[in-house]
Amino acid sequence: MIQPPIQRGKPKLALLLATLGSEPQVVTACLDLLLQQGEQIAQVVICHTAGADQPQSRSEPIARALAALQQEFLSSTAPARFVPIVDEAGQPLTDVDTYPAAQAAFRFLYNQVRLAKQAGFRLHFCIAGGRKTLAIFGMAAAQLLFDEDDRLWHLYSAGEFLESKRLHPVPGDQARLVPIPLILWSQISPALGDFADEEDPYRLAERLNALRLAERIESCRGFVLGALTPAEARAVALLVRHGWSDQEIAAELGLSARTVEMHLRSAYQKAAAHWEMESVNRAQLIALLSLYYAMQIPEKPA
User: Fold this and answer.
1) In angstroms, rounded to a whole number, what is the distance separating the alpha carbons of residues 116 and 22?
2) How far is CA 177 from the centre of its chain?
3) pLDDT reported for residue 291
4) Where are the beta strands (DSSP E) in the chain?
5) What's the CA gap between 264 and 127, in Å, rounded?
6) 3-state DSSP assignment of residue 46
7) Is 257 exposed, middle or buried (CB count within 10 Å of its CB: 0-12, 13-18, 19+)?
8) How many CA within 13 A on the CB side of residue 204?
9) Tell me: the pLDDT tens digits for 123-134?
10) What tens digit of pLDDT does each residue of 205-255 get?
11) Most buried residue, 228, 252, 279, 300, by most Cβ within 10 Å?
12) Would you state the torsion angle of the CA atoms of residues 85, 169, 71, 77, taken in this order, to the nearest 10 degrees?
């Protein structure tokens, strides 16, 4: 259980979440570099597959890494918790090499991030350890749940520090944290805050897709009803629904082709402004509005 930080009138304390493979220095070097930046790390949560009680082929190097870290954190100022990645039945995963294991690992990492955020921590998440699959899932969880105060990190190491496998870098070592840029859902859609209690990232993804669909339709509705004149809207509706030429639209509406061309040109300009695009052409306008018109009941043009 992630314990909330005790802080009254102080800056928000941070939690370091890290994935672990066979190299324990990924965790210790990351912690050292964050502390050098002045971060106040209140807790360290280390997520790992396998375990010391499961000495199977891939588990053995991870078990050695766990043992090294458990000994190291006995004297650390930041308390550490070692959390095995478990499946839906609560059984530790020895690897992430099947689809069910991948699903379970994603759910697990997602909920570690979610619980840390709910506890009030500012989060540093290092995804340099373990399978690349875990790094991908960690990035996806961060994109769903992070806010602007959280950071996602990769650890770059090379040279003598990498070869020596020392737990702590010293001045001159080639070891540094590389920030990973993210496009945060919390910035794209403020409504995401309503989903903070969702425990399953797959259900959250479905809800986000539905939300995006609703937002897209509402944006189209605002454009058609708010930006277009009635005459422009009639021409646009026929264009999007049927893909007609200017001449065909003109014949349907009882207008000249020149008038239809003017209506559509105005609609392209307004669409570019509405969706903040450099320009919008005929094909792009159809693509932008096709879903909206597909969900509307056609009316006889006036």
Assistant:
1) 25
2) 20
3) 85
4) 14-20, 41-48, 80-84, 122-126, 151-158, 174-179
5) 50
6) strand
7) middle
8) 22
9) 999 999 998 899
10) 888 778 888 888 999 999 999 999 999 999 999 999 999 999 999 999 999
11) 228
12) -90
Whole-model pTM above 0.85?
no
Question: 221, 274 in Cβ contact below 8 A?
Answer: no
**Do 120 and 2 meet the contact criterion of CB atoms below 8 Å apart?**
no
Would you state the structure tokens that stand for residue 9, as one six-digit string? 């009138």
Residue with tokens 């360290």: 44
- Work out the angle between the directed axes of helices 282-294 and 257-274 (0-180°, nearest 10): 80
Question: How far apart are alpha carbons 161 and 158 in whole angstroms?
Answer: 6
Contacts 24+ apart (CB under 8 A), 79-83: 79/43, 79/44, 80/43, 80/44, 80/45, 80/46, 81/43, 81/44, 81/45, 81/46, 82/46, 82/48, 83/45, 83/46, 83/47, 83/48, 83/112
DSSP track, 228-252: S-HHHHHHHHHHHHH---HHHHHHH
- For the chain, list the domains and their CATH numbers: 14-195 (3.40.50.10770), 201-294 (1.10.10.10)
Integer CA distances (angstroms), 230 to 125, 243, 263, in order = 52, 19, 10
Distance CA 258, CA 107 (A): 57
CB 177 within 8 A of CB 128: no
Strands 122-126, 151-158: pairing is parallel
Rounded Cα gap, residues 111 and 15, in angstroms = 14
